[in-house]
Amino acid sequence: MTTMTTQSSGMGVRISPLSLLTHLLVGLAGLQLGLVIGGYTVIHTGSDAATTVTTSGDSSSSSSSTGANADAVVGIPCGRDTTDATIRELRLKLAHALAEASAETTLPETLQGFVAGMGRVDRDEFIQRFDVGVPWDAKQPGNKEVLLLYNHPLSLPRNGSSDASSNTIPRYESINDAVQNCHQMKIVLQKPNQPNVCWAVVGQWDSHHVQKLMRLPPEHSLSTKKAVSEGFPLRYVSRNHLPNGRQTRVPTGTSYFPILHDYLGKLEATLARLSPVAAQAADPHNSLVVLVCNHGQSELLWNFVCAARSRSLNLAHVLVFATDSVTYDLAVAMGLHAMDVQNAFGDMPTVAARRYGDAAFTGMMMSKVYVMHLLITLGYNVLFQDVDVVWYQDPLAYFNNDQSDFDLFFQDDGAH
Questions:
Q1: Which residue range is the domain that position 235 belongs to?
Q2: pLDDT confidence of 177, banded at 50, 70, 90?
Q3: How sure is the predictor about 13, in pLDDT bands with cuts at 50, 70 and 90?
Q4: Which of 51, 241, 403, 407 has the largest CB neighbor count within 10 A?
Q5: Residue limits of the Nucleotide-diphospho-sugar transferase domain (predicted)?
Q6: What is the pLDDT of residues 294-353, one digit of tens each?
Q7: Model confidence pLDDT, tens digit, residues 210-222
C-alpha cells in the first residue's frame, strides 16, 4: 500500500519512492492524452487568421483564411466560395473527429452507424409542437420528457453535447434547438410502465411499420394454451394481438348483413320522413347538431336541455333521433326538433345499457351509425354528440366559419 505522509517538524514533506514513481507515471499519461486530444483541436489565432486542423495519424494540415463566424473545418478550406455540400462534409468530419477523441463513450462504435447521439425535451412542448392526430395523455412521473435519437452526426444539434461520445443524455430547453438539423423525424408512441415490453431499434433499410413479436405458441399449434408465456419463443404476431395473447379479428364481409337488412330495406322511406324534419332543424350553413336517445337515457337528454337553457344557449338547430315513442314525446315537449325512428332501425332497446358492449349498448351504437349515414346522404353538415354531454358555448359557431377547411372532426372520449 502506497502512503504519503507529512510532518510539521523541520523535516518538511516525506514521500515514498513508490508514490513518487506513481505520480510521475500519471503525469506522463496525462501529457500523452493531452497530445492526442490536441491533435483534434482546431486552433483559432484571430478573426482573420488561418485555421489549422491536424488529425491523428495524418501529419498533413490545411490552412485557409476565415471570418470570425466561419465554421471549424477539417482538412478542407472554408472560404466564401465553399459550397453547401463542402460545409456539410466539413461538419461531418469534425463530428466524427470529436467523437473519436473521447476516451469514454455512452454508445459503442458498433451502434453509431444508426444512432449518432441522443437528446431529451419537455413532453408538453413536444406534443404541442407536433400533432400526430391522437389525443395526448397528461404527463405523469416517469413520462415527462421525450427521448430523441439522432441517426447521423449531421442530425445532431449545433449546440450541446448530444453526440454518442457524451456520457449523459442532454436536455434541450427549446424544441427548436433539439430538432434544428432533423429534416425528417419518425415518432413512435409507447404506453408507459408496461411490464415485460421491450423495444429494439435495428439499423436497416427504412420501414414505416412497427414489427410486433410476442411469446405465444406457434400459430397453428394444437396447444390449448394461448396465453403469453416465457416458455414460448418470441414470434411475429399481428397488431390485433392483445397483451394477454388474445387476438381480435376483423368481421367477415357478410356477418353484418342480417343487422343491416331492416335498415336498408326501409332506407328510402326513412329518408323521405327525415328530409322535412332535418330541413327545419338545419341552420343557414346547412349544419345541425344530432343526438340519439332512448327511454333509458332520457334523463341525460333532459339534463342536456336544462344545462343549455341555463346558459341561454340556442337549441333551435338540435335534432334528436328518438328510438322509442316515449322519448319522442319527451323531446317534442321540451321544444326540440325530433325524428321518430319507429322501426326504421329494426328492434332497438328502450333501456339504458347495463355494461359496456351489452345488447343495449351495441343496439344504440348501431343507431348512431344509421343516423350519420342518413344525414350525410341528405347532404348536411353534422355535429354528432352523445346525450351525456353539456354545453358551455354553442359549438356550431366554432365549425361555421370561413376557414373550415376540414372534412371531419373527431373527439376521443379517453378510452384508448
A1: 210-250
A2: very high
A3: very low
A4: 51
A5: 315-414
A6: 999 999 999 999 999 999 999 999 999 999 999 999 999 999 999 999 989 888 888 888
A7: 899 999 888 776 5
178 burial (CB, 10 Å; 0-12 / 13-18 / 19+) is: buried
Question: What are the counts of helices (DSSP H) followed by strands (DSSP E) for the chain?
Answer: 10, 11
Q: Which three cell numbers stand for residue 190?
A: 409507447
User: Which cell numbers hold the place of 41?
Assistant: 483541436
User: 252: which DSSP letter?
Assistant: P
Mean pLDDT rounded to a whole number for the chain: 78
Does 344 lie in the same domain as 281? yes
Residue 297 lies in a domain: yes
* Closest to 367 (Cα-Cα) out of 280, 294, 308: 294
CA distance 133 to 143: 19
Q: Does 264 lie in the same domain as 238?
A: no
For residues 274 and 322, state if they share a domain. Answer: yes
Does 307 lie in the same domain as 227?
Answer: no
Distance from C-alpha of 163 to C-alpha of 119, rounded to nearest angstrom: 9
State the cell numbers at 344.
326504421
Inform me whether the pLDDT recorded for 402 exceeds 90: no
Sequence letter at residue 259? I
Are 91 and 157 in contact by the 8 Å Cβ rule? The answer is: no
- From residue 267, how far is each of 228, 248, 259, 273, 362 by CA, in Å? 46, 31, 13, 10, 20
3-state SS assignment for residue 383: strand
* Shared domain check, 388 and 318: yes
**Residues 223 and 320 reside in one and the same domain:** no
The per-residue pLDDT for range 22-66, each reduced to its tens digit, is 666 666 666 655 654 555 444 333 333 333 333 333 434 333 333
List the one residue out of 218, 214, 186, 209 whose CA is nearest residue 198: 214
Q: Report how many domains make up the chain.
A: 4
Check whether residue 165 and residue 182 sit in a common domain: yes
Residues 288, 378 within the same domain: yes
pTM reported for the whole predicted model: 0.51
Residue written as grid cell 347538431: 289
